[in-house]
Amino acid sequence: MTTSDHEIYLDHHATTPVDDRVVAEMQQYFTEEYGNPASKDNHAFGHTAHAEMETAREQVAKAIGARTGGEVVAKSIIFTSGATESDNFAIRGIADYAREEGLGSHLITSEIEHEAVLEPYKQLEQEGFDVTRVPVDEYGQVDPADVADAIRDETVLISIMAANNEIGTINPLEEIGNIAADHDDLWFHTDAVQAIGYVDIDVNEMGIDLMSISGHKIYGPKGIGALYADLSVKTKLKPLLVGGGHESGKRSGTPNVPGIVGLGKAIELAVQHREERVSHVRELRDHLWQRLSDELETVSLNGHPEERLPNNLNVSFPNVDVRELVRMSLSNQGVMAALGSACASGDGTSHVLEAITDDQDRIESAVRFGLGKDLTKEEIDYAADVIIEEVNLTESIFG
Ligand SMILES: *Cc1c(COP(=O)(O)O)cnc(C)c1O
């Protein structure tokens, strides 16, 4: 697609490159220490694979503050094939438990969740569960008071994302967690895929019972993720995948050891380097926004002006055919951006933007830029030059 020497990747919400240090850690578990962790008592390769998997479990638990009395609770981490599975597992796992135990059948979520949360909710609704989807404000933020108002005696699950993958808005997790904690047999799940590298998340302090994360959004490999489950709720979760009883019977299937090692390393690096990554991408993002807003009269910002991911810029270019802009004009010049959400496989309009505005032109002309740690100011300036030139060109054609 690219006919340019430039490769300016501004789509880090869709996926990120794997950090060289992560690749280096993973390497030997493909070709040298390739044992199955289930063979840990049989031979050295099995023993090593198991030990490395448990080290990664500690790394993940530590990174999200999964502790009791100062001790890291590694057992609260269940490895999965990615956040899509983690989201499905958390939601189904609670719903199936509630159904089996005759608990309530009411579930709460928001209007702006990822499809990996929205779809299992839809399925459960068809199976007889009652669902409340709390609205968001004009910036895409959930009001904890709306969550509190939605809770009934029958409510068993609240699933509200930590930060949105399209517009970057960060939700008040701790307030929602505190509300959930006041109720028995009510669990709080959050999809923290986009937030984890940029927001300091402490599952204990924030009252989070279940949390989904993914490797490939934090400079780790694709096809690996985890579900954090507080031990009191982990025992209750009904597994999605049954078989050999791996992951304490919660997720059968031979563990992806290289992927798990990579996830552990990636999340450790994300926490270690969080501050510098945050300030770097924020500076570049603010610079990009400054240039676009200075030089383009009609551009507008989508999402919260402050409480947003530091690497996210979602803007609308009214009267511009952004499909053409992103897929042809920018792409041909090596600037890689996204239309709304790259996760949505269809070409439909964004449910996130529809939740924050009625302005169809604003919805249909939205472009998402997702910045990353390895970008430079020069690259951002090149991207800004190209975007400004192309937007001006199409606007002049439209008159
Ligand atoms: C990417 C993403 C997912 C899906 O994660 P996979 O590991 O690709 O399955 C879920 N939720 C959010 C918010 C995401 O951005």
From TrEMBL:
Keyword match ATP-binding: no
EC number: 2.8.1.7
Organism whose genome encodes this protein: Halobellus ruber
Gene3D superfamilies, alphabetized: 1.10.260.50, Aspartate Aminotransferase, domain 1 (3.90.1150.10), Type I PLP-dependent aspartate aminotransferase-like (Major domain) (3.40.640.10)
Entry annotated with the keyword Ligase: no
Any one GO molecular-function label of the UniProt entry: iron-sulfur cluster binding
Cofactor: pyridoxal 5'-phosphate
Domain of life the protein comes from: Archaea
Descriptive protein name: cysteine desulfurase
Domain Aminotransferase class V residue range list: 8-382
Similarity section: Belongs to the class-V pyridoxal-phosphate-dependent aminotransferase family. NifS/IscS subfamily.
Keyword terms, alphabetized: Iron, Iron-sulfur, Metal-binding, Pyridoxal phosphate, Transferase
